[in-house]
Amino acid sequence: RELLVLATLLLHTREGGGIREASPASDAKSQQRPAEDALEHVSMVAQEAYNRWIKTRNRDDMLVAIRHQEEAVKLAPSSWQFHYTLANMHYSIANEKVAEQHARKAAKLQTGSLQEKLLGRILVQRGKIHEGIPHLQRALELQQDDAEGWYKLGGALFEVGDLVSASRCFFTAGALSNVSLWWLSAAHTMAKLKDPRCFSLYMASIRSDPRNLDAWKDFSFTLSNSHRAKDAEWASRKTLEIEESGDNYFSLGNSLLSQKRYAEARQVYQKGARMDPLNSGMLHNLGFSSHLSGEPFVAINASLQTCKLYLNDGERGDLTSHTRRQGPMYVTGLANALRRAQEIDLSVDVLRSLRQPKPDVNDKQVINDNIRVDDLELKSTIQRVQKRLKRIRQRLSKKQEEDAFLSQYTGESHVSMDPPAGKQSLVPRAVIIYLIGKKIEHFLDLLDSLHSLKINFLDQNPYPIILFHEGLNQTQMEAVLKHYDDVRFHRLDKEFLFPPEHVNFSKVPKIIGGHANVGYRHMCRFYSGAMFNYPLLEPYEWFLRLDSDSFILGRIREDPFKVMRAGRYIYGYMGIGREDEYLTTGLWNASQEYMRERNIFPEDTALDRYLEEGVWDRSYFYTNFEIGHLPFFRSEKYQSFYASLDRKGGFYYYRWGDAPIRLLGVTMHAKETMIRRFHEIPYSHKVYVILP
Q1: Torsional class of 251: left (φ above 0), alpha (ψ -120 to 50), beta (otherwise)
Q2: How many CA atoms lie within 13 A of 508 on its CB side?
Q3: If DSSP states are collapsed to H, E and C, what string results for 296-317?
Q4: Cβ(685)–Cβ(545) under 8 Å?
Q5: At 274, which helix (H) or strand (E)?
Q6: CB-based contacts of 75: which residues, under 8 Å, 6+ apart?
Q7: 397 exposure class (CB count in 10 Å sphere: 0-12, 13-18, 19+)
Q8: Which of 77, 89, 495, 548 could disulfide-link to 445, CB 3.0 to 4.6 Å?
Q9: Cα(692)–Cα(681) distance, rounded to whole angstroms?
Q10: SS (H, E, C) 67-109
Q11: Alpha-carbon span 266 to 260, nearest angstrom
Q12: Residue 227: pLDDT above 90?
């Protein structure tokens, strides 16, 4: 832009074109000459001041240039070139309102590509994007090979959300001039459209400028989001070759973490944290990778620093809405690190700082994003953790790394809630169920979950456990049995791990919502209905389901199986969440279709509580702790509902979850009096905590 202005000024002074156009008509040449001399003088002074501004970027130089250019406009008011140059000068120092006035005058005096493009750019800059786009388009009609014009038009279209058109403009700009930034803009826009052609465009940007840091960083981010962790690692390492920074170490650590290379990720995060000790996300991931790679004290310390950063930001008033939402995750990260180091009492104290949402007017407690951190409670707990840090470190350092990491598997709990009670009589044909995937973090969580369940419930109520799994090895099974010996391991049969034949697998997305791969959707389908007809469960009448990261935080004072039997309940739950709309595509329509066929009227059932103006409000039961009467779930009415949904294929096409299906399937077939909420059991699952 600056070169264009300079060229325009040189054109006026060297060729005098603007002088001839701007000269007033006069019959006397003696009167014309002084006017021409004055115009030439002010143009020359404006040019000299502008040249100084280009070198110094001193605003005063630009103001001198503008003042003399304004004199030139007064002397030659019909010169589009002078108006154009003055508009450009004002635009250069962000005086966009005046710039717009002169740009409009220039475009009105004479239509041309330069005038239309400048006016379009100024309008876009002023937020008048829809008004500016037609001017940019007209400029390109007049000069189709203007690469910068295509780039500017692409930027405007991107701002109004027309990503397809924007990507075409950016691509055209890159093809015309091979500028790295323009290829990058095309790639970034294609990535937002989830178009796989974005990867070749990133490479075009990098070939144009191999040291374009923004291109490498955006490329790495897109590869990571596309679950191409190995390629993301390669791109992240390239960014570090160009610039060693905390952010770039963070990116590399994330790609290693997603490949389950926990020790390497920890080392990378540690380097990044030394360069950027205020990056709370990096410290949180350092804590997570540390306890998965056998460094429990590093995990505690990193998680502690994360929470302190969170509190410091809050005290300074620097908390963004995003950081505020991350707060509960940081708190549970510290609680998990303490729990795995056997500091159970401190872990529970940390969780006490999480405040759960209050029930609404209909006595519904919707969890999801409504959990917040009590900053004063967390600050007080952190002080207690810091006082005990030295003792924790000494205790952990006495053992070998492996023993320290696995100490919680055989160690005694630090919590002593009540004196041990004698074993109680059990509800016949009752069983506890877990299902575990292949990730190491799930296995480690399971061991902690079993430990907390044993000391707080199973020691007095030794119910059997069935552990469904996808491939635990012998060593892992032995570690489980060290906690509790009445565990039956069962690897899920293949027929329960693959979609039914009517599902068109070619139309099944590989990932939904950034995390739900096909394996996750197998699990949703299994828990929604297939589990209840599994042969292994045939002898049982009652089930209690827990997730691998479900933790009992204190003594269960009353056997929930007995509570269910005595109250003649068919289902028990702890909390209610609200599902994201995109994960329920077609689910309510399919449920309504089923109810019409069966003459079920929601207002006559427990489902009525979860309707807003006759439409399901997307509530769901938190199924990470649920207890139920198996005859109900094996009944024709529940199984027919499940089968009707299964035929739609929604588990695989849209990631219908077992939690919303459980709420719909139970409440449409039951009265409120048949459902029990358990709010008296000390419990946590991720950021959801109950501490009566």
Answers
A1: alpha
A2: 23
A3: HHHHHHHHHHHHHHHHHHHHHC
A4: no
A5: helix 262-275
A6: 22, 35, 38, 39, 42
A7: exposed
A8: 548
A9: 7
A10: HHHHHHHHHCCCCHHHHHHHHHHHHHCCCHHHHHHHHHHHHHH
A11: 11
A12: no
Q: Please check whether residue 594 is in contact with residue 527, taking contact to mean a CB–CB distance below 8 angstroms.
A: no
Query: What is the full DSSP assignment across 530-544?
Result: GGGG-GGGTT-SEEE
Q: Tokens in use for 306? A: 């994360």
54 and 93 Cβ atoms separated by less than 8 Å: no
The H-or-E segment that residue 8 falls in is helix 2-15
At residue 432, the 3 state secondary structure works out as strand
Tokens of 466: 């069935």
**What is the pLDDT of the chain when averaged over all its residues?**
87
Q: Which of 614, 626, 606 is nearest to 588 (CA)?
A: 614
Spatial separation of the C-alpha atoms in residues 190 and 194, rounded to whole Å: 6
Token digits for 240?
């570090």
C-alpha closest to that of 153 among 143, 165, 161: 165
Neighbours of 312 (CB within 10 A): 13
According to DSSP, the β-strands at 465-469 and 430-436 are: parallel
**By C-alpha distance, which of 221, 282, 217 is closest to 246?**
282
- Bridge partner residues of 573 (DSSP): 626, 677
Written as one string, the DSSP assignment of 123-156 is HHHTT-HHHHHHHHHHHHHH-TT-HHHHHHHHHH
Q: What is the pLDDT of residues 96-154, one digit of tens each?
A: 999 999 999 999 999 899 999 999 999 999 999 999 999 999 999 999 999 999 999 99
Q: How far apart are CA 188 and CA 614, in angstroms?
A: 42
| Separation CA 206–CA 214 (nearest Å) | 10
SS3 466: strand
In this structure, the dihedral spanned by the alpha carbons of residues 214, 216, 218 and 219, taken in order and rounded to 10 degrees, is 160
Give the tens place of pLDDT for each residue, 376-419: 999 999 999 999 998 888 888 875 444 434 444 333 333 333 33
pLDDT tens string 603-644: 899 999 999 999 999 999 999 999 999 999 999 999 999 999
d(CA 240, CA 502): 48
Q: Strand 465-469 vs strand 487-491: parallel, antiparallel, or unpaired? A: parallel
In whole angstroms, what is the distance from residue 288 CA to residue 348 CA?
Answer: 18
**CB–CB of 467/395 below 8 Å?**
no
The token duo for 634 is 């094996």
Closest CA relative to residue 675, chosen from 598, 614, 608, 617: 608
CA distance 566 to 209: 73
Burial class for 289, CB neighbours closer than 10 Å (0-12, 13-18, 19+): buried
Q: Which amino acid is at 595?
A: M
493 burial class (0-12, 13-18, 19+ CB within 10 angstroms)? exposed
Run of H or E residues at 373 = strand 372-373
Residue 498 CA to residue 687 CA, distance in Å, equals 31
